[in-house]
Write a structure and sequence with these properties.
By secondary structure, this protein is of the alpha/beta class. The chain has helices at 12-28, 60-63, 66-79, 91-98, 136-145, 164-168, 196-209, 223-232, 248-256, 267-274, 289-292, 306-309, 319-327, 330-333, 338-352; strands spanning 3-7, 33-39, 54-58, 83-86, 104-108, 122-124, 180-184, 213-217, 239-240, 260-264, 279-282, 301-304. A 6-stranded parallel sheet has the order 3-2-1-4-5-6, with helices on both faces. A 6-stranded parallel sheet has the order 9-8-7-10-11-12, with helices on both faces. α8 (223-232) links the parallel β8 and β9. α1 (12-28) packs parallel to α5 (136-145).
């Protein structure tokens, strides 16, 4: 029986899509023991996953302390893993792999010519372009998996497992009489958030044309910013502000009872897709859509990106150019106006409402 570790120390969406490694490995080797290392605030998306036997919780800020990292490395060595998959592939996880004692360590090669330094027994080159509808981020993780064995047929779709008790929880109460559209009014970071007046115009369009409740979704620390968007909305009658999911797991249970998601790009989009809910995604100009737009068919899952609508605004979309845009996406974001978004959104809503 093989003992496997998957390291994914990043945000919610990254953790959820990395679970495809566990799902496919367990499908082929059901007797294996699979552990998953992730930041504590992301656990909600992999809880109850039958293919993950243990979640190793780490804290983002604490792990930046050298003594804490060394202690974690010692803990990993004691586990005596046979294989470690490292889709995170950053300094912390590379050091864990290098000193883990695992027989096989698999991660992505550094973009720098001399940046690998023997961290992995099996360094994998990151592909330049996507080739499948699942998106490049999922493809890259499956490429890691392929270093171990042939896993055909591959299940590319991340899954979220809800218990029967979780499914029965009543999150909607009096609002269950209508369909509920969840609105991700803010991105996970300011750089992923549309201008507030644009968001308000989109909310007003939906509220004026569809008989549904509109539920604002945002992180706990974003409450004041979400309130600012609410104040800008002209049609407030069907906006829900008194239902709030305080944790990722609570949002999953809430989203499972709602109809569809319209959102800035982020982890909630991946959650909705894993729950088989239709999604309309608005990408920040600095995010490479080919990496993160998964399973888009133009019907059930659809998205908009400024690059597609105004390609002349981008000289290139190299890694360096993307980082440059990320530092200040505001000017480009202003080019992605509601007038460009609403026609695409209208088609999506007609197909899925």
């Amino acid at each position: 029986m093989k003992k496997i570790l998957i390291i994914q120390n990043k945000r919610i969406g990254d953790v959820l899509i990395s679970s495809v490694i566990a799902n496919n490995y367990k499908m082929k080797f059901p007797e294996s023991e699979i552990h998953f290392m992730a930041y504590d605030f992301t656990h909600g998306v992999i809880m109850n996953n039958p293919n993950i036997d243990k979640i190793i919780s780490i804290n983002d800020k604490e792990l930046k302390k050298i003594p804490v990292l060394f202690q974690l490395i010692r803990q990993i060595r004691k586990e005596k893993y046979d294989i470690i998959f490292d889709p995170y592939s950053k300094t912390q996880s590379k050091l864990i792999c290098k000193f883990s004692g695992a027989g096989q360590t698999i991660g992505h090669k550094s973009r720098k010519k001399f940046g690998n330094w023997g961290y992995y027994t099996h360094p994998v080159t990151i592909s330049k372009e996507k080739t499948k509808i699942c998106g490049k981020a999922i493809e890259d993780r499956i490429h890691l998996l392929s270093q171990v064995s042939n896993f055909d047929p591959i299940d590319y779709e991340p899954k979220i497992s809800l218990s029967e008790e979780e499914k029965k929880e009543d999150w909607l109460g009096q609002y269950a009489s209508k369909k509920i559209i969840v609105l991700g009014v803010l991105g996970s970071t300011p750089q992923k958030s549309m201008p507030y007046n644009y968001v308000a115009q989109i909310v007003d369009y939906i509220a004026s044309n569809y008989d549904a409740y509109l539920l604002f979704n945002y992180a706990p620390h974003q409450k004041e910013e979400a309130q600012k968007i609410y104040e800008l909305c002209k049609n407030k009658a069907n906006i829900i502000l008194d239902i709030y999911a305080p944790s990722i797991r609570d949002f999953i249970k809430l989203m499972n009872q709602c109809h569809l998601l319209v959102s800035n790009e982020g982890g909630t989009v991946h959650i909705a897709k894993a729950l088989n809910k239709p999604t309309f995604t608005i990408f920040s100009p600095y995010v490479n859509k080919d990496h993160w737009a998964s399973f888009e068919d133009g019907i059930k899952h659809h998205s908009v990106h400024l690059l597609e609508m105004k390609p002349d605004l981008f000289d290139s979309f190299t890694f360096e150019e993307r980082k440059k845009i990320e530092k200040n996406p505001d000017e480009l974001y202003k080019q992605l106006t509601p007038e460009l978004i609403v026609p695409e959104l209208e088609i999506f809503l007609k197909n899925n409402f």
